[in-house]
Each structure stands twice: as structure tokens, then as C-alpha cells.
């Protein structure tokens, strides 16, 4: 490649070919070795710029991962609500007046 357009096409072709193997457990170590071998011949400023770009990608991925974990915790974690009810103080009086009063325990007083 000699022009910027040719380099862009070359970049796309390489990306397509290499990313085909991204599911492999050897993919990340392969890229690390490849980048290291390619960067050896570059000027220090170019390596610094590429490193900064990769660092930016790292921080963006990290932010997305935290956001995704935060969202999954919100969805998976339901708020526990405790509802306590108190008997009506006059419940026995109301039951007695309607004939529903249970006097089973009234005879068992000491």
C-alpha cells in the first residue's frame, strides 16, 4: 500500500483476517506478541501514541464493564419489603357481636 486509502483497505483486510480467531484462547497473547514485534521498528513517539490509544480503549472497556455489572446488579437484586400488620385491638369485640368469636381458650385460665 502506498496511499492512505490503500492502507485503510489493507487495515480492514488484516482486521477481518485476524479477528476471525478472536474466540481462541491464544488470541490475546498472539496480539501482544504481534504488536510488540511490530512496534520494535517504530519511533518512541509513535509507540507512545499507540500505547495511549490502547490505554483509551482499555478505560472505555473497563467503564462499560462496570456499567454492565451495575445494571445487572440492579435487575437481579430486588428490594425486600417487609410488611407487618397488627391485629385490630377491637377485633374480638367485633367477632363477638357477629357470632364468630372463638371461646376455646377462655376456659383454660389457670
From TrEMBL:
This protein's GO CC annotations:
eukaryotic translation initiation factor 3 complex
Ranges for region Disordered? 60-80
- Coiled-coil annotated spans: none
Species the sequence originates in: Ostrea edulis (Native oyster)
Query: Matching Gene3D superfamilies, A to Z?
Result: Eukaryotic translation initiation factor 3 like domains
Q: Which GO terms describe its molecular function?
A: translation initiation factor activity
Domain of life of the organism in this record? Eukaryota
Keywords of this protein's UniProt record, alphabetized? Cytoplasm, Initiation factor, Protein biosynthesis
Q: Name one Pfam family in it.
A: eIF3_subunit
Asked if the Swiss-Prot or TrEMBL record annotates the protein with the keyword Transcription regulation, the reply is: no
> Composition bias, kind Basic and acidic residues: at what positions?
60-71
Protein name in the entry: Eukaryotic translation initiation factor 3 subunit J
Tell me the InterPro entries matching this sequence.
eIF3-like_dom_sf (IPR023194), eIF3j (IPR013906)
Amino acid at each position: 500500500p502506498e496511499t492512505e486509502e490503500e492502507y485503510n483497505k489493507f487495515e480492514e483486510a488484516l482486521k477481518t483476517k485476524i479477528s476471525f480467531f478472536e474466540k481462541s484462547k491464544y488470541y490475546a497473547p498472539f496480539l501482544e506478541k504481534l504488536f510488540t514485534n511490530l512496534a520494535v521498528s517504530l519511533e518512541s513517539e509513535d509507540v507512545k501514541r499507540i500505547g495511549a490509544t490502547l490505554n483509551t480503549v482499555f478505560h472505555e472497556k473497563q467503564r462499560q464493564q462496570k456499567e454492565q455489572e451495575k445494571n445487572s446488579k440492579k435487575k437481579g437484586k430486588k428490594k425486600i419489603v417487609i410488611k407487618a400488620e397488627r391485629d385490630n385491638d377491637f377485633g374480638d369485640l367485633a367477632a363477638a357481636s357477629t357470632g364468630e368469636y372463638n371461646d376455646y381458650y377462655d376456659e383454660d385460665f389457670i
